[in-house]
Amino acid sequence: MIPLLGDLLTGGGAAELTAAVLLLLGGAAFLICAPVLALIDLREHRLPNRIIYPWALVTLGLLPLLGLLLGDASAVLRAAAAGLIWALVFLGIRLLHPPSLGMGDVKLVLILGIYTGFLGWPVLGAAVVLACLSGGLVSAALLITRRADRRTAIPFGPFLLLGAGLALLLS
After folding, report:
1. What is the pTM assigned to this prediction?
2. What long-range pairs does 20-24 form, CB within 8 A, spacing at least 24?
3. Nearest-10 Cα torsion for 14, 33, 57, 160
């Protein structure tokens, strides 16, 4: 995301500058919502709609405009597909085994899929891998240190946010 932002800021045109501002606004929304959601999920094991829904609206408003300004309709379609695919996979897991994931996680990955999918399938893949890897490592450490057992509920939202944030930052 940083190279794209640099290219937009140095592109010289009004469309590029406007796109850079929109990208910065989307990044600011991520930086505001992600830590708040992570902390709430760690404390309360929930991802509140009063944060998820406005963030989703901001995301759905900014990214299509960004795609339009960049002349990249395929990025917008890819972002929508990525968000839907990730959310449908999580919804399937939720329906098959409800204790595994909450509906907040399903809604969250829709947003995170849109963010990462906009930048490309490899970014989405990196977000998924980083989320699962970080969640798995922390869970394993908790099990090894006996601070958790196999029935302990561990919120997945912070790891989803961490994985997506790292994937976006490193892309």
Report:
1. 0.94
2. 22/62, 22/65, 22/66, 22/69, 23/66
3. 100
C-alpha pair distances (Å), 161 with each of 18, 69, 136, 143, 148: 26, 27, 14, 22, 22
State the DSSP string of 52-110: HHHHHHHHHHHHHHHHHHHT-HHHHHHHHHHHHHHHHHHHHHHHH-TTT--HHHHHHHH
Structural domains in the chain (count)? 1
Query: What is the amino acid identity at position 155?
Result: P
Token pair, residue 97, equals 């085994």
Domain of residue 157 covers: 2-170
Dump pLDDT digits (tens) for 29-88: 999 999 999 999 999 999 999 999 999 999 999 988 999 999 999 999 999 999 999 999
